Amino acid sequence: MKASATFLLFFCHLLVVSLANSGMKRQYHPCRHLVFYFHDVVYNGQNDANATSAIVGAPQWGNLTILADKFHFGNVVVFDDPITLDNNFHSVPVGRAQGMYLYDTKYTWTAWLGFSFVFNSTQHKGTINFIGVDPLLVKTKDILVVGGTGDFFMHRGIATINTDSFEGEVYFRLRVDIKFYECW
Amino acid sequence: MKASATFLLFFCHLLVVSLANSGMKRQYHPCRHLVFYFHDVVYNGQNDANATSAIVGAPQWGNLTILADKFHFGNVVVFDDPITLDNNFHSVPVGRAQGMYLYDTKYTWTAWLGFSFVFNSTQHKGTINFIGVDPLLVKTKDILVVGGTGDFFMHRGIATINTDSFEGEVYFRLRVDIKFYECW
Amino acid sequence: MKASATFLLFFCHLLVVSLANSGMKRQYHPCRHLVFYFHDVVYNGQNDANATSAIVGAPQWGNLTILADKFHFGNVVVFDDPITLDNNFHSVPVGRAQGMYLYDTKYTWTAWLGFSFVFNSTQHKGTINFIGVDPLLVKTKDILVVGGTGDFFMHRGIATINTDSFEGEVYFRLRVDIKFYECW
Fold this sequence. Notes:
The structure is a homotrimer.
Chain A: H1 2-24, E1 32-41, E2 53-57, E3 76-84, E4 95-103, E5 110-120, E6 125-135, E7 141-150, E8 156-167, E9 171-182
Antiparallel strand pairs in A: 1-3, 1-9, 2-3, 3-4, 4-5, 5-6, 6-7, 7-8, 8-9
C-alpha cells in the first residue's frame, strides 16, 4: 500500500511539474502558421487605375507623386493592397492589406509599418494587425503581430517579411510568414 | 484502501486537468467590460471653434479642408475627441480619444485607426490603446485593444465599435464597447 | 494509511493551488528592465545636416518647416533618432528610434506616438515597439510596449517616458524606462 501511495505522489508531482513548466516557459513553436503575399502599386500621378497606394505625406523637399530624395525619408504612404496565397499578382485575392507605411531614415531604406490584414471569405474571417520596422535591404526581418479579431481573436505572434519582388519604385510584393505564438 | 487511493488519483487528475484546461484554453468571457462614446468634428475651414479633428494628410488629388474624392482614400485625420458615457455630445466628457485615422480604400469607405483613450478622473486613470480596421458600412466591427496603462495596466482585449450617428462629412459619433480578456 | 492519504491529498492540493495562483495573478515586478535615451532634432528648413526628424503632415494652417499654431495640433513628424545609454547627445548610439509622432490637441501639448527601437549590436539585437500618448507637460507618463522581436521576442510591458531636456522647438531628448512584464 505504501508503494502505491508513493507512486501516486510521484504521479501527481509529475503531472503538476510538467504543467508548471508548460505554464512558465511558454511554447516557442507556433500554434498556428500562415503564409500570404501582398502587392503594392504606388500612385505616381499616371497609374490611377492600377494604383493600390498613394503618397499622402512628404517632407518639405518632397511631393505627392514621386517618392522623395534622401531614401524617401518622410514619405507617408496609405495602401489597400490585394492579398494572395501565391506570388502571382493576378491570383484571386483572399483579403486586403490596409494601412500605412512611412520611410523613416535619411541614410538608408527603412520603413515603419502599421497595417492590418482583412479577411472575409469562407476560409478566413477577421483581421490580423501588424506593427514594426522594415529595413528594406535586409533580406528577411521580423515585425509584430499585435493581435487579431474574428478567427484570429486575441492571437499574438511574429511575422517574418521579405520583399519578394519589386519593379522600380512603383511596384513591390511582400511575402508575409505569420507565426502565432499565442492562440486562443 | 485501494478504493480510496483510486478516488484520490481521480481527484488529483480532475484538479490537474481542469487547471490545465484553464491554462491552455483561456477564458472567453470578458474580465472587464466598459462602454463609451466619442464625438468627432472634422475641421472644414470654417468650424475652427468646434472642430476636434483636422485633415493633415491627403493624396495628390485632395486638400486639407475637404475629405478627398474616391472614398477619401489617402486622407489622414488627427483628432482629440471628447469621450462621454452616453450618446449626448453635450454630456460632460469623462476623457479624450486622441490619435489618428486614415481612409485607406478607393472603392468603399474604410478607415485604419490608431488612437488612445486618455482618462484622468476619479473614476478612471490611465490609457486604453486601440488599433484596427473600420469598414464604415459594416454595422459593428471589432478592433484591437493592444494594451493599457494605469487602471488598465497591461490589459488586452477587443473593442466592438459602431458609428452611432453622423452628419454629412463633418460630425460622427462612435460607440465603443470594450471587452478586456486579459486583466492584471 | 488514512493519514498518509490525507497528507497526499493536502500536498497535491497545495501544489495545485499555488500553481493556479501563479497562473491567475501574474507578476507585477518587471521580468526585465532597461533604460535608454533618444535625441530628436526636428528639421526646420535650415538644419538638414543635423536634423533627425521632419514634419511630414500639417493642418491647413500649418507648413512643413515650422511646427503649427494651436499647440502644433495636426503636425505629423517622422523620425530616425539615435539611442544612447546616457543623456549625452554625443555618446555612441546603441540603436535607432524610428517611427512617428503626431501632435493631437488644440488646447495643450499632447503627442500620440508610434515607433520602434531598433538594435543591432553585440549587446542587443531586435526591436522593441511602442504605442501611446505623451501629455508633454506631465513629468513622467506611461506608454505601451506592445511587443518585441529578436532578443525581445514577444515581450510586453510599459515604458515610462519623460522629456529629459529640450531646446526651443528643434531639439528634445526623451528618457525611456522600459519595464517588461511578459518575458519569453
